[in-house]
Description:
Layout (H helix, E strand, L loop, with lengths): L28 E5 L8 H14 L3 E4 L17 H17 L2 E6 L10 H16 L4 E5 L10 H6 L3 H16 L5 E5 L10 H10 L7 E2 L11 H11 L4 E4 L29 E4 L5 H16 L6 H13 L1 H13 L11 H4 L7 H18 L8 H25 L12 E4 L3 E8 L2 E8 L7 E6 L15 E6 L7 E3 L10
Parallel strand pairs: 1-2, 1-8, 2-3, 3-4, 4-5, 6-7, 7-8
Antiparallel strand pairs: 9-10, 10-11, 12-13, 13-14
Amino acid sequence: MHSTYKFTFLFAVALCVSCSPTQQHFDKIGVLEGFYGTPWTHESRLDMVRFMGEVGMDSYFYAPKDDPYHRAKWRLPYTGEKLDEFSELVEVSKKAGVDLFYAISPGLDMVYSDSTDVQALKHKLQDMTKLGVHHFALFLDDVPEELRHEADKKKYKDLAEAHAELINGLWADFKDEGIEFVVCPTTYTSAWGSRDYIKKLGETIPESIPLFWTGEDVAIAQITEEEARNWEQLIHRKPLIWDNFPVNDFEGWRPILGPIRGRSATLPKAAEGIMANPMDLPYSSMIPLYTVAEYGKDPANYEPDSAIKDAVLSLAGERAFNHVMPVVQVYSDYGWTDNLFTPVYTPGKPLNEDLLFDTLDSLEYHLNSLKDSSFANNDYVQHFVQEIEPFVHKTRADLTQLLATDRTPITITSGFSKKWDDASFSIKKNGDEWVASLEADQVQLNNEWVMVVTNYQNPPAVWLQPEDLIIRWDLADSEFPRADNFHLTPFSRK
């Protein structure tokens, strides 16, 4: 059984007296289920593909980071019910006119020089071809940037050589079967990573294989034609844009519901296509994804403010518009900007208590109104409420707890200590060294504790700065803490 959604779309009829033959649009527009977090359910994934077909998106990438068979347990084949689900996903994708890309991410522990590992990868992809999958993606993102296994170090000069051999071998085996192949390299952003790696990879794999790129940072306010042209020079092909919008796995306390902005009207001239990475909230993601489709089909005439209104009308309907739209407006900020509720979750930000509680009251009013019996048959509205309501409730609880917490800035001096109900922290000076100690109850051993040493007397516009000392205790996985000066890009500082 599956849910069927009826989408009522708005069309503008116009007489085209003269249509420019140079009108630019993306050849590929799609959705990349590539977030960290709980993968979508099978039924919601089917609904997403149907939605994509309705709005003119043509490519769907199956790549949820927390599907163990996609990443952590990539060698193991899918079995039983999961195979049946993929078979149905193939059929629904065909009916919707959407190309289904199955992505696999073996780079966490693959031994590239081990023929057994290489064969396991090929067999996994061959199993998918038997289900009717004809589009594949090899994801090598968020994996070690250097060769780690001794056998690989002996065989290859560097990671680029290992990846090139793997990609070329897969391409040689599958190209005659009419398989389309896409790769996400380990250096996938201009913000960091080895330029030598990405340049060498681009020079040694076929130019017909697209390479993903996220832009000047991992998640970014704008992507321009010039930036894409610069990356094209490195990789010897137009980049395929992996747009980390509207994904919220880096800031899970809020959904991101606003329209896509900041993508150049001429970007299609320099990019292979654009794939949006959504939230783990499939139905709420449809609202911003609708605007991605509108931008992708006609970047030159895209209007974000009108597109977001059309999205809400099309998905929720005219009667629900006045309750859904205010919720969307509250959460229309982006991962690279602050939200009204950011001060609840970021130290040092000014907090307007009355405004926050008034906004929470308003959100609860609109969501409760959507639970009225008159909307009971509106499946989209019910899914939207189920996805968004927990954020509102949690923010209220977190705000209430924050206001009851002592937020006096801590001045670190030798011999400082502080105790909570379930943990204690102390720091003292020993000669030229500072020694920090953390003790936590057994029940807290799954927690991660982070201490940031920063200049609180001059709080910056963003929380973290490159010179800040970040001490991280991962009590579940490590006996010792890590003290790091992380490379912080403008995005990661937020």
